[in-house]
Design a protein that fits this description.
- By secondary structure, the protein is mainly beta.
- Helix content is 7%, strand content 52%.
- The strands form seven sheets. Strands 3-2-1-28 form a four-stranded antiparallel β-sheet, with no helix packed on it.
- The longest helix has 22 residues.
Length: 327
């Protein structure tokens, strides 16, 4: 059957609309929340804040990362107490099910986890190293030791040329630089117990939150110079907003989210957050933050324009790590 010119144009327009619609559905954003007290990943619609799926994970999952296209979640199964975990959960977010449980063998206590360039990077606290998992081949294809104790969180630049880890017991940041040959590893001494960590959007600074001391350290990547300031309380996580202008610090001890000017390092506001605030993620447009509340078994929704709590949602027992999937 042949179509005249008008019908051919109409058909092409209709086809493009259908393709666009299908693409929009596959790229729909999701909020991912790990409930380490019940070994599940809660999948939320960030617009309605309704839980649309709940997927079993490995034992005591601590941190989660999403693939760049928003199709998959990667969960580090840390393990409880005296039972170190040694697996990653690969979760299909559209099907809302675990499609693969990656056995890490002798790699123990996977924790901080980041997806970059289609690969999944994660720390292994027990082994004092970072590893890389390739979803395409279903193999761990690279390892690199940090030489430091309790390498907890990590950050990876989008080009994968620089990697940073926060090492709790060694009171340090390890900086890997693969942009030069031979590659370099630099140990940067900072304050005690650096647990939370984030890389500034411009790639020029690494921020670290020190448990128990009330301090935040900022490492200048180029000079390796460390500056430290005190926000009080018990800083657990630190997260920079997408524009790099503000740093958000969770303080579970005093039940608050501390908002700091990232340039002047001055406090802007303390937002009361009930239920022991912990993990933090920020929407790509920088308008909202989501904070897990461990004792309240859920999340708090923070409006970053009014700097206030605008909602609360129960997600499951003992939520901690969380991530944004999609655009």
């Amino acid at each position: 059957m042949q179509m005249n010119g008008v019908w051919a144009v109409r058909f092409a327009v209709l086809l493009s609309l259908l393709v666009f619609s299908a693409g929009a559905q596959t790229k729909q954003s999701r909020l991912l929340v790990l409930n380490k007290g019940e070994n599940t990943l809660a999948i939320l619609d960030p617009q309605t804040l309704k839980i649309i799926g709940r997927v079993p994970t490995g034992n005591s999952p601590h941190e989660v990362a999403a693939s760049a296209d928003g199709r998959f979640a990667y969960v580090a199964n840390y393990g409880p107490g005296p039972e170190p975990g040694n697996s990653l959960s690969v979760i299909d977010l559209a099907a809302m099910k675990e499609t693969r449980r990656v056995d890490l063998g002798g790699l123990r206590r996977p924790h901080g986890i980041v997806e970059a360039g289609g690969k999944v990077y994660f720390t292994c606290e027990t082994n004092r190293l970072i590893a890389r998992y390739d979803p395409a081949t279903d193999k761990v294809d690279w390892l690199m030791g940090t030489g430091q104790d309790t390498s907890h969180m990590l950050a990876v630049t989008p080009d994968q040329k620089r990697i940073y880890t926060a090492n709790i017991r060694s009171a340090s940041i390890t900086a890997f630089d693969f942009s030069v040959q031979p590659s370099t590893i630099t140990q940067i001494s900072i304050g005690p117990n650096p647990e939370g960590m984030d890389l500034a959007p411009n790639g020029r600074e690494v921020w670290a939150a020190h448990r128990n001391s009330g301090e935040i350290s900022v490492v200048d990547i180029a000079t390796r110079k460390v500056s430290t300031f005190n926000v009080g309380g018990d800083p657990y996580r630190v997260k920079l907003t997408p524009d790099g202008k503000r740093a958000l610090v969770s303080n579970p001890k005093d039940g608050e989210l501390i908002v700091v000017d990232a340039v002047t390092r001055k406090e802007i506001k303390r937002i009361p957050v009930e239920g022991m605030p912990a993990g933090i993620t920020v929407t790509p447009d920088g308008k909202q933050a989501f904070v897990t509340t461990i004792q309240a078994n859920g999340i708090a929704v923070i409006n970053l324009e009014s700097l206030s709590v605008t909602g609360k949602v129960e997600t499951g027992k003992g939520p901690d790590g969380l991530a944004w999937a999609g655009q």
